[in-house]
Amino acid sequence: MKDTHMQNPKISAKNVQVYYGDNHAIKDVNVEIADKTVTAFIGPSGCGKSTFLRCLNRMNDTIDICRVTGEIKIDDEDIYDAKVDPVQLRAKVGMVFQKPNPFPKSIYDNVAYGPKIHGLARNKAELDEIVEQSLRKAALWNEAKDRLDSPGTGLSGGQQQRLCIARAIATSPEVLLMDEPCSALDPIATAQVEELIDELRQSFSVVIVTHSMQQAARVSQKTAFFHLGNLVEYDDTDKIFTNPEDPRTESYISGRIG
Amino acid sequence: MTQKSLLTVDARTKKRNAAEKRFKAYGFAAISVAMLALVTLLTSVIGTGASAFKQTYATVTMQLPEDVLDKSGVRDIDVMKKVTTVGYTKILNQGLTDTVAALNIPHDLSNKDIGGMLSKEAAATIRDHVLANPELIGQEVTLDLLMNGRIDGYFKGRVTMESAALDSNTSPAELALAQALADAGVVNTKFNWAFLTNPDASDQRPEAAGLGVAILGSLYMMIIVLAISLPIGVAASIYLEEFAPKNRWTDLIEVNISNLAAVPSIVYGILGLAIFINFLEFKQSSPLVGGLVLSLMTLPRIIIPARAALKSVPPSIRDAALGVGASKMQSVFHHVLPLAAPGILTGVIIGLGQALGETAPLLLIGMVAFVREYPAAYTPDAGLFGEASTALPVQIYNWTQRADPGFVERASGAIITLLIFLLIMNAVAIFLRRKFERRW
Amino acid sequence: MAQHISSAYDRDLEAIQTLVVKMGGMVENAIMSAVTSLETRDMELAEKVRAGDKLIDALELQINEEAARVIALRAPVSKDLRSILTVLRITASLERIGDYAKNIAKRTATLADMPQISGSDAALRRMAREVQTMLKDLLDAYLRGDAELAENVRQHDQDVDQMYNALFREYLTFMMEDPRNITACMHLHFMAKNVERMGDLVTNMAEQLIYQITGELPDEARPKGDKTAYMTKL
Question: Where are the domains of chain A?
């Protein structure tokens, strides 16, 4: 791993350990994630990449037996500080999940929910504006503008995932976390979402966990390889895929066991 | 291994198919037996009870002489009240006799006998009517009056000429006269709304007995059950499912709630007796105590399906809500609860339906008594729902204990009424469930 | 290196490797046969070399197709990607070497009618033998993944270049001695140039192999011994 530190990392994690009960799931992870970049976390099943991702917006708080130690800073503020309210954090750090999970409400209500509970709009007109902007950014506006009141669950899989992305960006987050967002989608929907991610990185810092190495290679600028809870290698994506340093990385990306 | 053709069925498959066919047949037989039992029950109940919804009345014109009813001429209600039903009975007898004479129906019965064909309730009816409308004194008035239980039974087929001959309360001559009056149009059998509105009547007057008090009592109790067990039950299930820490204490509570749902209802009656009546000194036999006891009983029966409904909401919805920045409370109340609402609602209505039909605990707290007045919802000295009352299932129990065969019909009629209410509640539950069912 | 989880992937890569080694062997033979046929004035052998080149070309085509298939189906990364790219380059170079051998064989027929020039054939043969050894070592290095051996091969080109310089001067001398030798010497010179080019191509292959093994092309400029471009006089 190159030992160069970034100038102003958006997220910086130091000595992060995560325990599920007695199980030491994440071991001593140090990583700096840049702003306005897409960073991919790759690794075999159970290596801890999703767990680490969920640390970044404190979703692990909802699991009783999960304990997180170490320092995770976003914009130089420790998010595990006692003064930080996870609810406020999650308005700043949005999340998109593996299986599209729109609320069983209308498309409009889906996108408007976040801004409403965080009080981001003063009146209906502003709320409408936020909803439209989010749907446009998620490349869903043209398909949805005539059916804003129809249920979100009535869309196709790819559209639902884009709705979830619109919902996540409606609160104007600065970081977008995506946990295998395309694994439930067909190739065309996947390509559309990847294109979307490429556009989104101009405004946000995106961290994406993926099982597909080709996707990590296509979509990210930096890649981190996790293995058995350790961060094995973290570098520019093209370096990882043409000439990685660690033999474990090499084995994983070429599909070699042992 | 030699290749077997797909077109021939091998022995194993044949055996398996036969076993499955047998299983299906057993299932079908079981359902048939159940249906048979149901049909038998319904036939029996409806057969005996349907007639409770018809009642025989006589249209009687009678004079209201002032000298009998209000000698003073002042029309003072308190004075007029001194005239008891005995006085009015004579007027009735006269009125009916005159009607019979006017129709030229041959008979050899005395006035008293003719008057006896009317229910003993009839005198009270006319008395109440006069006291409510004192200006009618001195005039002629025409009223529909109840006929007595035996005459009513005759028109319903329960009483025949043969049984009348052996009966001390009636005679074949009376039946013949009644028939003649019916042919003349004076006596007719019509739909019996009074069955649902009248209060209970004494042993001798099955024809006047009604479910009014019982329905009111059950209604009050259902209101109390709804008001208490719905909020507490739903809140408890939300707490247990969403907020309670997963430790031994919570497990203990869960086990206890499951056990409580299985406790025999009479135990709740004993509990109610000991705490509400003896210790807290609430009024015995009041809908308040009945409602409280039933609430206690219904609570676990609401908590358990409510928890199941909450559990069935997929965690992806909660994650989605949290991910957007909702607090735990917001995610539960904005997202989980609306999705669990159909299940919770169904649980509540079914719980209420069960509470409606419970008898044993109510017996213990004293709702067996004969209650004649409609209980008021609130009175200053008895408090909220404090007046003595009875309930539908208890009323049924009561009537089955009485000697007069007219009460058999009444009891069956009450059973039909209870079943109809339960059917309506379940239908509402199914409708609401369908309406609010969502896909996620 | 551990095996791929997908054994078919390993089989594909091994199959390509076998084809490359086979092609290399055929090219080795072609080189030596071409030069021998010149020495012994064996027309049949020369003819065989010319016919054999078709097989070499066919093999290159086959290897290209196999490589394209692996790229399309397996999306190779890192080491696997480098090895596929190397295979494509190596076979292109091998095919060029084969063409040079064919060229030599062609000129043998022409030279058959001319008087032999003493000593020249043997020198040419020695040079060809050097190149053949280089090629053999390279194929060994390819099979074993031996970067050191590849580096040796790379350095060896110096000797070949020296030999070419010497031959160049020799032919000039012959041509100056007796103008009747000019035609023959011209042909011989082209043959020598071909062999020298073969040496350069083997060196290219060696560099490519080093890239496959280490991930980086050797960046020090290789020693170029061919000074004939700058020769003004003997």
Answer: 11-101+175-254
